[in-house]
Write a structure and sequence with these properties.
By secondary structure, this protein is an alpha/beta fold. It has 12 helices and 21 strands. Strands 4, 14, 15, 16, 17, 18, 19, 20 and 21 form a 9-stranded mixed beta sheet that branches. A hairpin with a 2-residue loop joins β20 and β21. The structure holds ligand LLP.
């Protein structure tokens, strides 16, 4: 079994996270429960920043808050000196409520509404990553109306396929995101943006995909973008201050995954950008990146109580937990794989193979297929690893299951950072027929 960060086994033989017994956490806060190892989030954040600092490269590491956006998490990101990527009015609202420094907030999205853009401008956020011509014109209109300046990046699609699950590819040409770099749209957008005096065009952005294990895709993207920047320097007299290479750095969900460390991804990117920039005699831009999953993914563990089981003789044993696709939709949506242990006997030898079912009324609500486990007792606690990214943030109330609580643990202390939903919460917005 692979343990992450400050997760390990305590003297009772139970799973321990951040110095606390997982069984005690489940007892105190109930299940299902999302538990975050705060020290590991800090370690990941520092890994990304360290490489930039050592190489003395101006940079922003913007946490892609779609991975897990709550007030406490954004305050932690701020403590670690990260910037922030938001993709909706709701994520921006959360950032503002967390007191996140507005100048370090970047606003993404392929269909930002007028209200969202106005909210961003009124709050003077750091920059808007303009995705398409519609947005470029709308933003121009709003800047005129408000007589205000705005810093922008242009999102481009460099036509690079990152090797990962199809549904989460965003960098290829046939994409709903960004201005195409090859067919001239990006250049057209840039020259239009440069003509409008209320835009301060900082540079360009791309995001080539998610859960990427190698640096090749990032290096290739850097090359394509910098080649274009060189062309635009000559043709449009435009020199980018910022090169944003997006997120997508992979993490280890199971033993099949072999990601690099944050420090390694960044070091190779820096090396490549420096060499490209010098070969074209361009001035070195700031490098911005936007990790989401790799900052919070492996620090999250979900604790479930085991309930019913069903044996299908000669086929398999189903073991059901008290959550499922409502708190982790990734297995159902992407066939995502996870590892898990019984938190009260994590090291005990497995003596059977079971499949972990959720409690939602849907056959596809399976969390893990074919998991080796020791014999289970009543009320055992199952700990599923690496649920920190896109778990809580994609959670839902299917079957009217209340969303679980979220607890942060660090140095032997726990803090409730999101309350468990109640049944009253579930009907809070409902109105009666008459
Ligand atoms: N920047 C941009 C522009 C993005 O679109 C994304 C993710 C990120 C940064 C952060 O990517 P990360 O470092 O977390 O891979 N729900 C899917 C992931 C969708 C990612 C969408 N964009 C999942 O659960 O795997």
């Amino acid at each position: 079994m692979h343990f992450y960060g400050s997760t390990g086994i305590n003297s009772k033989g139970n799973l321990e996270i951040g110095g606390l017994d997982a069984i005690d956490l489940a007892r105190e806060y109930g299940t299902p429960l999302y538990v975050y190892d705060v020290a590991l989030i800090r370690e990941r954040a520092r890994g990304f920043k360290q490489a930039f600092d050592e190489q003395k490269v101006q940079a922003q590491v913007a946490y892609a808050s779609k991975a897990f956006s709550t007030i406490a998490m954004l305050q932690l990101a701020e403590e670690e000196g990260l910037s922030l990527d938001v993709v909706s009015g709701g994520e921006l609202y959360t950032a503002l409520a967390a007191g996140f420094p507005v100048e370090r907030i970047h606003f993404h999205g392929n269909n930002k509404s007028r209200e969202e853009l106005e909210m961003a401008l009124e709050n003077r956020i750091g920059c808007i990553v303009v995705d398409n011509f519609y947005e470029l014109n709308l933003l121009k209109l709003i800047c005129n109306e408000k007589n205000t300046m705005v810093k922008i990046l242009l999102r481009v699609t460099p036509g690079i396929e990152a090797h990962t699950h199809d549904y989460i590819l965003t960098g290829q040409e046939d994409s709903k995101f960004g201005f195409d770099l090859q067919n001239g749209q990006a250049e057209e957008a840039l020259s239009a943006a440069l003509q409008f005096e209320n835009f301060d065009v900082l540079g360009i952005h791309c995001h080539i995909g998610s859960q990427i294990f190698e640096t090749t895709g990032f290096l290739l993207a850097a090359e394509k973008l910098i080649e274009k920047l060189n062309k635009w320097k000559n043709k449009l007299s435009f020199e980018a201050k910022v090169l944003n290479l997006g997120g997508g750095f992979g993490i280890r969900y199971t033993k099949e995954d072999e990601p690099l460390l944050p420090y390694q991804y960044v070091s190779e990117i820096i090396k490549e950008v420096k060499s490209l920039v010098s070969s074209f005699s361009l001035s070195m831009p700031e490098i911005w990146i936007e990790p989401g999953r790799s900052l919070v993914g492996d620090s999250g563990i979900t604790l479930y109580k085991i309930g019913s089981s069903k044996e299908v003789p000669g086929v398999r044993k189903y073991l059901a937990v008290d959550g499922g696709m409502s708190d982790n939709i990734r297995p159902a949506l992407y066939q995502a794989k996870y590892e898990a242990v019984l938190a009260n006997k994590p090291l005990e030898k497995a003596d059977e193979t079971v499949s972990i079912a959720g409690k939602c009324c849907e056959s596809g609500d399976m969390l893990i297929w074919d998991l080796p486990l020791p014999k289970q007792g009543d009320e055992d606690i199952l700990a599923v690893f690496c649920t920190g990214a896109y778990g809580y943030s994609m959670s839902n109330n299917y079957n009217r299951l209340p969303r679980p609580a979220v607890v942060f643990v660090e140095n032997g202390k726990s803090a409730l950072v999101v309350k468990r939903e109640t049944y009253e919460d579930l009907i809070r917005l409902d109105l009666p027929l008459k």
